[in-house]
């Protein structure tokens, strides 16, 4: 009858193993706008013919960039057509500390997902207990309860030794462990999305730091050229003064303008060096490793004339932060089921097999085989609302994550709209500044010609040269700003991670006894090399 009751409990449990309490997750239906609000302004900017090009040498205006095909979002930085930038980004993706940390976190999540499957499988342990004393069952308290359940003192004065194996299988009747496995899978996917977000950020940060460096280098070249022009002007003015053609005021003005420009050289050089150091850090290197490579000056990369932003709905599958928010929501939904399952009975079957031995001075040494098997259940009946509160908390946390998911989508659309508008504005500004730069260069030429003929004083030349340098500075700043807004636009579009989804294999968790030997054999290996 006892065996029949055991099998009846097991059979009843097996009949309901297909049930998993808690809500089943479905991706929320979140409406998005049909098009970006700033699409019209971007289209208008893209139609201008004097799109931003490479930085112009001092004294000339930059040529417009040639028309280009729409940018491929998975490798958008390649549209800047700068091999050095491509090389820097490739090295940043392999050596940036944040990228490496994100990969380790992803591997940890994948390993946990592989290990949590063991929660629904039986556990097996080996144990032994031995003692001497005045009692009849000296193994009590020293051997595991599962083995102790099978001992038998019939015909023995003492039980000195008990050892063997025991197994326990908690049946996943109400889906607690299946929900935990489901949550672990969602957590892994959320961690993958977080890692993709790091890739997007590192690519954009590296590109932006590179553009800033090139902008500073162009500014330094413009400043050096302006200083050379003013030195030559000062030399000519001194000659004219010595010959009595002009007065001391012109010499003083020329000296003042030259000194003001020379005062800017050292701070600008320091900013240029700091930009080089920033790039080195992004690559996971020391500044000393990168200075020689980055020191040669080059132009600001030209941004393409055509960009493809897609539709707001595309952000749902492209932006890693949206994907992460959605997977976090999915994991929280699964954990409602985990909390709900705690309200229901837990049912387990267990068994043990081993030996017991009488072994003491003055007594015959007798050994016997022992075993036991059976089923058990536990049901929390009175906990004063603790478990029910855990279900409510899990539900409220899930609701908060749903709101957060919608917030992230709205924020993503806002970022794209803002960056589209800023990019369009910088393109228009750059076109106007190009016209102003050409006019200022002509003004300097005319002012010098009139001064040499004695038709105007030197103050007009100073004003013309000062205005030209100021416009060159603004033009370079506009080039940098246009490139930065291009970078920020594609950061907000979630571009760059798509081509970097290959992952190294994880360490497959081993049973404890095998893992023990493996860890012993590899105990001298550095972390991360096993």
Characteristics:
4 strands; elongated; single chain; four-stranded antiparallel β-sheet; alpha+beta; disordered N terminus
Descriptive overview:
This protein is of the alpha+beta class and 530 residues long. 58% of the residues lie in helices and 8% in strands. It is built from 14 helices and 4 strands. A 4-stranded antiparallel β-sheet has the order 1-2-3-4. β3 and β4 form a beta hairpin. α6 packs antiparallel against α13, α11 runs antiparallel to α12 and α12 packs antiparallel against α13. The longest helix is centred in the middle third of the chain and has 67 residues. The chain is elongated and about 135 Å long. The N terminus is likely disordered.
In whole angstroms, the N-to-C terminal distance is 53 Å
Q: In total, how many beta strands?
A: 4
Strand order of the largest sheet: 1-2-3-4
Overall average pLDDT: 83
Poorly predicted ranges: 1-17, 47-67
Please, how many helices? Answer: 14
Cα radius of gyration in angstroms: 38 Å
Protein structure class: alpha+beta
Shape: elongated
Proportion of helical residues? 55-70%
Strand content: 5-15%
| Succession of helices and strands | HHHHEHEHHHHHHEEHHH
Biggest pleated-sheet summary: 4 strands, antiparallel
Short description:
The protein is of the alpha+beta class and 530 residues long. Helices cover 58% and strands 8% of the residues. The chain has helices at 2-15, 39-46, 83-95, 97-116, 145-148, 176-242, 248-262, 265-282, 287-294, 315-318, 320-341, 386-452, 458-492, 512-521; strands at 123-130, 161-171, 346-358, 366-378.
Break the fold down into its secondary structure elements and pairings.
Layout: H1 2-15, H2 39-46, H3 83-95, H4 97-116, E1 123-130, H5 145-148, E2 161-171, H6 176-242, H7 248-262, H8 265-282, H9 287-294, H10 315-318, H11 320-341, E3 346-358, E4 366-378, H12 386-452, H13 458-492, H14 512-521
Antiparallel strand pairs: 1-2, 2-3, 3-4
